[in-house]
């Protein structure tokens, strides 16, 4: 069965600190990979996605993620966080064939202290 | 609007009542998904439509849950004889075929 693991449940950083959120997935076939962000009181928004090609993907607001196939990982990074990055971050996968739905991790709550 | 619209935003019901949750997808999006998000968890898949056809309902937790999309646009998720464990946020998402999914604000359902 497919599963997505986000090991950091709550991360607290000061502004300008660097961020890395871990995401590992378990699936027997090839997948598309996503990071979604949910700001307080708002809906889930797509931060970035990986379908194929360059495993280093750049998204909105200075975020990037690197797909490492051998480690089944898709970690999210940002060199310098801002207070406005305070939000919940969800990693998700869906298989390239078959089921079209997303499988989500449990989410990581990021709190950035000004 | 340009995004996925869900109504109501909040719904409180007594245990045993039936509820209906509505989703208006982005115009032109053929794929529509329903997810359930419990407190402190990530969204979990319930069901998927391609146009009016319900292609996957493997995530529906019981036969009390029913979803429809009769004209391939608006969708309704119905929960009959609600129970306390049905309390959650219900998310709707839409996409172009297998493209990235766009989510609505969700309906927060509380069963008393």
How would you portray this structure in words?
The complex is a heterodimer of chains A (114) and B (112). Chain A is built from no helices and 12 strands. With 114 residues, chain A is an all-beta fold. In chain B, 0% of the residues lie in helices and 49% in strands. Chain B is built from no helices and 11 strands. In chain B, the strands form 2 sheets. In chain B, strands 2, 4, 5, 6, 9, 10 and 11 form a 7-stranded mixed sheet that branches. In chain B, strands 1-3-8-7 form a 4-stranded antiparallel sheet, with no helix packed on it. In chain B, a hairpin with a 6-residue loop joins strand 7 and strand 8. The radius of gyration of chain B is 13 Å and the shape is globular. At the A-B interface, strand 5, strand 6, strand 10 and strand 11 of A face strand 4, strand 5 and strand 10 of B.
Show the helix and strand layout.
The complex is a heterodimer of chains A (114) and B (112).
Chain A: E1 3-5, E2 10-14, E3 19-21, E4 24-26, E5 31-38, E6 45-50, E7 56-58, E8 64-68, E9 73-78, E10 87-95, E11 103-104, E12 108-113
Parallel strand pairs in A: 2-12
Antiparallel strand pairs in A: 1-4, 3-9, 5-6, 5-10, 7-8, 8-9, 10-11, 10-12
Chain B: E1 5-7, E2 10-13, E3 19-24, E4 31-37, E5 44-50, E6 53-56, E7 65-68, E8 75-79, E9 88-95, E10 102-103, E11 107-111
Parallel strand pairs in B: 2-11
Antiparallel strand pairs in B: 1-3, 3-8, 4-5, 4-9, 5-6, 7-8, 9-10, 9-11
- Distance between the ends of chain A: 41 Å
Number of helices of chain B: 0
Class from secondary-structure proportions of chain A: mainly beta
Greatest interface: A-B, 22 and 26 residues
Instruction: Report the biggest beta sheet of chain A as strand number plus sense, adding barrel if it closes.
Output: 6 strands, mixed
CA(first)-CA(last) distance of chain B: 33 Å
Structural class of chain B: mainly beta
The ordered string of helix (H) and strand (E) elements of chain A is: EEEEEEEEEEEE
Unreliable segments of 5+ consecutive residues of chain A: none
- pLDDT averaged residue by residue of chain A: 93
Number of strands of chain B: 11
The coarse overall form of chain A would be: globular
- Which assembly state applies to the chains in this document? heterodimer
Helical content of chain B stands at: under 10%
Strand content of chain B: over 45%
The sequence of SSEs of chain B as H and E is EEEEEEEEEEE
Put simply, the count of helices of chain A is: 0
Sheet-strand content of chain A, in percent, reads: over 45%
Helix coverage percent of chain A? under 10%
